[in-house]
Amino acid sequence: MNLRELLKKYGNNVGLHMKAVRSYTQQLLLALRLLKKCSILHADIKPDNILVNDTKLTLKLCDFGSGCHVADAELAPYLVSRFYRAPEIMLGLPYDFGIDLWSVAVTLYEVYTGKIMFAGKSNNQMLKFMMDLKGKFSNRLVRKAQFRDQHFDFNCNFLYHEVDKVTQRDKVTTLSVIRVTRDLEAELLGEQELDKDGRRKLEQFRSLLDAMVTLDSSKRITCSEALKHPFVVEK
């Protein structure tokens, strides 16, 4: 059984228990640490490519069909399944092990909430949804991006491709300001009523996810750092 099937069977679109999520987090991070040691990028981590054993306690990464040696990584805007694709791939920036860490973070959000973290219909919409949570990309990052002209103007304003609600035609809106409209902790909490210990664990989970989905991959938490995070270390 893979993780998506497990979610459908037991998560019932509301996700799994925090205890399971903590264990899965640790296992996936350990898998990433081993991949890094071997200089391998998986490049397609998502619930479908994570197997769960019969006891539901042990995970294994599968389907290395998109995998490659980190030295062979090439710019390709559609590498990794869209919902799990890191921003540096979409922008055409150099990438490495951080793309798998991003995919794990988005997967863990889905495992806990039962919802997709960034459900964009295109790379452009994905970038907009990411900024709704994390704020604008820095101008420095945008200027280095190989595919910047697809998503930003000369002044690094975001060019949002959307469908006009009245005419149903494609239109491009220039967004010079992007306000953060999403609250990660509120999304994780949902309608739960947690005790003090439950809130502490939720805040730790939020803190780790937030660090794992840092837009600038050079500032994103590393796998080794994530394994030392209180969410993973404290039970």
Number of helices: 10
CATH level 3 topology: Transferase(Phosphotransferase), domain 1
- Neighbour order of strands in the largest sheet: 1-4
Can you tell me the number of structural domains? 1
Q: Unreliable segments (pLDDT under 50, ≥5 consecutive)?
A: none
The gyration radius over C-alpha positions equals: 18 Å
Task: Kindly provide the name of the CATH class.
Answer: Mainly Alpha
Write down the secondary-structure element order.
HHEEEEHHHHEEHHHH
What portion of the residues fall into strands of 2 or more residues? 5-15%
Fourth-tier CATH superfamily name: Transferase(Phosphotransferase) domain 1
Counting DSSP E segments of at least 2 residues, the number of strands comes to 6
Shape summary: globular
InterPro entries: Kinase-like_dom_sf, Prot_kinase_dom, Ser/Thr_kinase_AS, Ser_Thr_dual-spec_kinase
Pfam family, one: Pkinase
GO molecular function, one term: ATP binding
Keywords: ATP-binding, Kinase, Nucleotide-binding, Serine/threonine-protein kinase, Transferase
Describe the structure.
The protein has ten helices and six strands, in the order H-H-E-E-E-E-H-H-H-H-E-E-H-H-H-H. By secondary structure, the chain is mainly α. The chain has a single domain, classed as Transferase(Phosphotransferase), domain 1. The strands form three sheets. The protein has a two-stranded antiparallel ribbon with strand order 1-4. The radius of gyration is 18 Å and the shape is globular. It starts with a helix and ends with a helix. 33% of the residues are buried.
